[in-house]
C-alpha cells in the first residue's frame, strides 16, 4: 500500500495556503536532506530545478520535519483554525 | 478585551482534565481546541493505565469509551528472519478495576470534552491560538483568529510542539535527540477475529511490543494494540537516530516492511486500513523538562515535557491527565488568594514533585541514555532469536547437546567486555 493511498484514507480539510515554508537558501546548502527521510507522509521531494518542495496538503501535523531539519529551514505552524487533518480514530 | 478566569489552550487530555477539575468552581473556563472536535488532532499508540489516574479522576471512567482492557503483555524480539516472543497473561490483569485499556483518542477525547461541557466549561473547537498577550513578563491572555481574550491564568495544554511554552520563553525548540516519531495505521478487523487471533475473551485486549531489526538499527520499536474492532499497528523511532541512519531510507517504508513480516502479516490478514496517523513523543525525560510556570501561566502534559519511555512501555497520557488536575488545583488555590503570580503558581511544581509523575521520571532518568545504545535494537534481539533457533533446529547432522549449543553461542555473543558494559548500563533502569 502506497503512502498516498494511506493518506487518502484520512480526513483532510485543506487550506489554500501552506502552513509549512522552507528557506531555499538553507535547503540549497543542505546535503543530508533529513526532511525527505523523516516525514512519515513522504511529502518532501526535490523538484526539477533541484529545489526542496513540500506538499502540505497531506500533512499529518506531527512536526517531525521541523525537528529533523537541524539547519532551521523548516518554518512550521499549525494549520489555521478549522483546517488540516481530522483524525477519526487517533 | 473580553476576559475570563482561565483559558486552556488545547482540548486534549491535559487541558480537559484541568477543565474538569475547575468545573463547578464558579470560575469561567474556556478551552480552545484547534481541531474540529477534541481528539481530532490527537494520536496515541495506545494504551492508558487507569490505576495512577483513579486517585485524581475517580468518577469519569464508568461510561468512558475505552477499547479493551489489556490482559496480555506480549514482547517480541525480532531478528532478520526470526523472532522470539514472550507472552505474559495474569489473572491480576483481569480483575477490576482493570489496570490498563487500549484507547483511540478521537473517540475518548471527544467524549471527555462533552462531559466537561456538560459541567459548564466552554470547549470551543476550531480555535487555533496564534499568540500570547503579555503585560511585561506576565501572561494576560491569548490571540486567536485576530481576537484577543484575557484571562487571570493561561494553561498551555497544546501538546508536545507547544508553541505557547515557546512563546512564553519557558521552552526552547525541540531537538532531535529528545523526541521520537510515532506513526501507525488503524486496521479495521472484526472483533471475533481479533479475539480468535490473540486468544482473547470478549472485551479482553492484548498489547504487543517489538524490538529489533524492524527499525533497522534505529532507536525505537514497534507496537500493536487490539481495539474493539481494529488494531493499532505502528512504529516509534528516535529522530536523531533516524537522522544518523546509514544507509538512508525513508521512515515510512519501515512500517510497510514491518507489515510484510510473516509474524505481522498473519495477524492483520483480511484487515482494512482505515487511518494513517503520526505524532511526536517526548524522549528527553527529566533532563529536558522546562520550568512549569511563569506569571499567569502553567504548562501541562506534553507541553511540559511530561512523558517517558520506560523501554517496555511509553507513558504520557496519565501524566497529561494528572498534571492537568494538579494545574486545576493550583489555579483554585491562586484564585482564593487572587494572586496568579509565578510565586503562587510555583505550588504546581510542588504538587508535580510530590506526584508519581516526577518520581517516575526521576527513577527512569537514565533510560534515554540506554536507549541510545544501538545494540539494544539490533544485536541483542537478533542473538536471542538465533540462540533459540539453534536450540530448536534439527537436521541431518547429529544434534549437539542443548547446553553446548547455548554455551557456544553465549560465549561468542555475550561473554565479552561490550556486553558487560551494556549490562552495567541497562541495570540503571
Features:
heterodimer; A: 90 residues; two-stranded antiparallel ribbon; B: alpha/beta; 15 helices; elongated
Protein architecture, described:
The complex is a heterodimer of chains A (90) and B (429). Chain A is of the alpha+beta class and 90 residues long. Helix content of chain A is 26%, strand content 20%. In chain A, strand 3 and strand 4 (52-54) form a beta hairpin. Chain B is of the alpha/beta class. Chain B is elongated. Chain B has helices spanning 13-22, 105-118, 163-167, 191-197, 239-244, 252-260, 262-268, 317-337, 342-345, 347-354, 356-363, 367-371, 379-392, 402-413, 417-426, and strands spanning 2-9, 29-32, 47-49, 69-78, 83-89, 100-102, 122-124, 129-135, 138-144, 147-156, 179-188, 204-212, 220-226, 230-238, 272-282, 293-294, 297-299, 308-309, 314-315. Chain A binds chain B through residues 1, 3, 6-7, 9-10, 13, 32, 34, 36-42, 60-64, 66-68, 70, 77-82, 84-90, and chain B through 34-36, 39-44, 104-107, 109, 126-128, 144-145, 160-161, 163, 173-176, 179, 181, 183, 185-186, 230, 232, 239, 242-243, 245, 248-252, 256, 273-280.
